[in-house]
């Protein structure tokens, strides 16, 4: 650790501190506004790094990276709209908590879980970056396909009580993910003669439609006395330590899952969040309550997606391979400063790298402090009268849907998704499986097809010479069987309780 003191000397200056503060505030805002997100936030900041010294420029980019992922949870909890796709799983329990008047608690759970996940992945990054980068190289298309297959079992977890509807919704999400130009062949699929569909269905407008607009339509058609008039607490509330200790296993598992998934190039925080949520559904202490406003769901999602931030930097820094689209943009900031990521990075710039690790830890701490400080103002949104709140949500939805690509077609996508989502809700079809299929579908299909190419079209060859894939597929099979058995048992118990008693 002979480089630690020089690294501290490098980062303990006013410019680095200002970069962290400004970057964190900007990242939280960009993450919370639907349709903007991490990549756009870093891209906007990139030109400002041209004239900055290496340490402040890296601090600015890292602060935006961490805080924007967390920022998406704020809108997910308060207005049922994930600010970023990474927070799609946060909606499942965050918004129900806000509806029952516990928005302050939900923000507390999300903020502390995000802080712990970020610090955990930073510690892993410091201690084991080169070794973990080599582990990431052992994941080829077949192993990644098996990992995504395991993540898709989350569909069964969030569909309890309506397994058939949930599976159909998941299939719909997977189908929507295939719309557009096939990246492997160049053919356009399922565009139905609509030119704009050749580019595919953009995820953020779909999320906005399924969650935000569906909620607006439901509120407008719901009788006033059914909307509820709960006392919605203002501020920021951290749960007692004993509540955290009851969920510590989910917290640790989610941190590990997020870090490991982040290390794998091309997977991302959305995948990590759904894998962690699925694991919480399988083994969590409060697994039967997930989806109804249970803090364990927030812990699983937020600890995992923020742990990805440190994990994704492992292949980026150690191998020069971006862990996700955000780190691909971050690599540009390093290259602008004359720093080439790769195997020589730690040997050529040790002080700067250790300084970056210190900055990353500081960014997570500042993020949590800013989130707590902003919570009193943010939670007041829920006390707005519905005639004011609903138009505000509608305006944010329109801006978010249009802001992704500046394409008016995305507004139509959000509107159609909102209308379809509203009718699906009336029919008892859950929204989450559609999102899961849409988020994981492209990676699932791409790696499946690449694996089949490697094995000359033989799926059975996936089970030969790929021990990691075999283990992951075996776990997937067990999870699916247990979900089906559990669903059959619940149906049997329900029919037994409603059967007439013979007299």
Automatic annotation (TrEMBL):
Keywords noted in UniProt: Membrane, Transmembrane, Transmembrane helix
Pfam families: TctA (PF01970)
Domain DUF112 span(s) in chain numbering: 18-436
Regions crossing the membrane: 20-46, 58-79, 106-128, 135-158, 164-181, 193-213, 251-277, 352-375, 387-404, 411-439, 459-485
InterPro entries the record matches: DUF112_TM
PANTHER family hit by this protein: TRICARBOXYLIC TRANSPORT PROTEIN (PTHR35342:SF5)
Protein name: Tripartite tricarboxylate transporter permease
Organism of this sequence: Marinimicrococcus flavescens
Highest classification ranks of the organism: Bacteria, Pseudomonadati, Pseudomonadota, Alphaproteobacteria, Geminicoccales
